[in-house]
Amino acid sequence: MRKRPNWYAWLAIFLISQGALQRGFIQDRWARDFAPKGSLVKGTGLSPEQFLFALAGFREMVAGILWVRADSFFDSGNFDAVLPIIRLVTMLDPKQIDVYSTGMWHIGYNFTDEESRSDRRYVPSALALGKEGCKQNPDTYELWFETGWIWFHKIEDDYDKPVYYFEEAEKRPDMQPARKNLLAMAYQREGRADESLKQYFKLYDESAAEMKRDPSLATRQNMETLLQNIDTLLVRMSQRGYFAENNGTYASGEYDTKPPVDLGFSVKASIVEARVLRLEGTWNVLPVGTHIRVVLRDKDYPGGKVAEMDWDAQDEVTLDPPHDRTFMQDQLFVKNRRFSKRIDMSKDVTIYPFASKSYILELFYSPRLAPPHLQDKFSWNGEGMTDANYLNTVVRPGQRVIYASFELTRDQMLRFNQWADTMPILKTPNFRETTERGGREDVIEMPSLRTGG
Amino acid sequence: MRAIIAIGRTTLGEAIRRKVLLVILLVGVLFLSVAPGLGVLSARSETVVLRGMVLGIIQLTSALIAIVLTVYMLPNEIERRTIYTILCKPVQRWQFLIGKYLGAVLALGVMMLLMTTVMEITVAINQGIDANRMVELATGPLMFFIQMSLLAAVAMFFSTFVTPLVNFFLSAGMYLLGSLFATFFETLKDNPNTHPLPKAVALVVNTILPNFSNYNVQNHLINPDQTIQNPTAYYTFVTGYGLFYIGVLLVGAILIFDRREF
Hints:
The complex is a heterodimer of chains A (453) and B (262). Chain A has helices at 7-33, 48-76, 79-92, 97-109, 123-136, 142-155, 160-171, 181-189, 193-213, 217-239, 242-247, 372-378, 410-414, 449-452, and strands at 261-262, 266-273, 276-282, 291-298, 304-305, 308-309, 327-333, 338-344, 358-365, 385-386, 391-392, 401-409, 425-427. Chain A has 453 residues and is of the alpha+beta class. Chain A has a domain at 261-427. Chain B is built from eleven helices and no strands. The two termini of chain B are 24 Å apart.
């Protein structure tokens, strides 16, 4: 008779072997490469059965189903419903880069009022999502680039931030060559034209090397574009006196930025109805392209800064902005040396609750935001512009900006009490009412081919 | 060995003829075929969603098949009294049990192979033929196969002493627990405020419990931009782990089955 195996010995061997493998070789690798990351286990808003299903190895499947659902909400314009889904999907599968990038764009751009102004209270959440995405996907350039883009395009301030994110994106090997140009642009917006030039030269060298490997039309076009960018930037740096400033000869030379143009900024703000603001003013620059930032916010808005807020304040993604807080930001476009805009916040009480007692109305202009044809006069730091009353060199160190602010009360904004019959008007002392149009030279006439024959 | 092979072959034949399994398989294949209909925002999103869906469908269908296939295996033999005709021959109980298990795993393998083929065809039709990506994608179902073999061993172990219905829920519960516990353990381990005693208990439980989450490796297969460090070593370790744990469960089942009286 054959001897029976010693099952207890086998049991012990198998048990110890599996335990040793699990503890010694698998656990850490699993935790590093495959474990659901932190936020998932902190609570997701999933129902218990969804949560169990997700954790039981079906995370990606649940994420996929939810993302498809989100798409149908996008199509039907139900943006509010998309928000929690984005959060869930990024928790379930933090490697889904598209969900992070779409989510950032959605949170940052799509919550708008009746006049298509973004609800800026959401922007820190969009950036927090970007930061989380970068942390979860550190090896690919995409979320670094996308987060940088939100800073560059949406916030248009604090340019050290987009520079940081674009630099990080460029460190990743999968960074697309065409997108590297944006770092050069961000350097310029930060006032670092020399770094911008270095970046263009670096890209040109890379492009020339690529040209040797792959002499295709696309590579040639890329190389020629870079050459043109270098040429344009060198001319601008020279004509705007950038080199002269750096070598201490600016004062004695002739540059396009001299003499500085007096912007003659003035403004009048009227609360024409409850929650409706009318802004009028002057700006002594004839060419079109000026947009002046206007911010109306709670005086004690959390993280409130001069003409902006601390956009980077949030590390956790919260889908609920501070509902009892008001932060409105818009642009005033200058035409024929004047600007006039009616900002109606009455239809969006949830975005502009006006629950605080005091508000601050800020008007801000930075030369860094000027289009190139205006920047050719103002330069990157505002050397070519001045203003007798509102030039400010403090609120943005290193820049000469235009800044004016007024304080308002809740009663004024809502036209309560003594303001029910009296229109609150705030204006700079130099503001002059005018109904007259300027001379013929002030009117921008657009030639029409049809009427002109 | 010949007895084990003979029992395994018979079990495979029986399993393939079972209608309930074929229905589950058919539903799985149908879902795999319609998965590309889930169009979303971008081409990459479509890739991610499609891969997530097809791998999820295979995993879910395989888990169902593994449990349903195994929970009835021994009880049916006992209920129909066919076990007597086998055990009266020169076949030992452990040989019978291992033969049954191997037959079940083989049947599971055939069904999973079919689903994997459908998955590969579906993905190739929608995203083009890329041999490297197809091979890489197949590692998902391969890991699921080991996971499901482990699940089948769990169900086999329970089937030696509980009824099929109870076994169904016990095995499913064990699958859930074995998938969840590692995450729970990681959270507990990383929490500096947790007392060392619960940490130690969790460590013991995590070492003893069948760790199904080891095989949920699909994330980097689904998200094309993600890479992991040395996947081959990891796959080798978890395969070894699976084999050892299956050994634990089968030996446990043999020890119980040996003492059972019919």
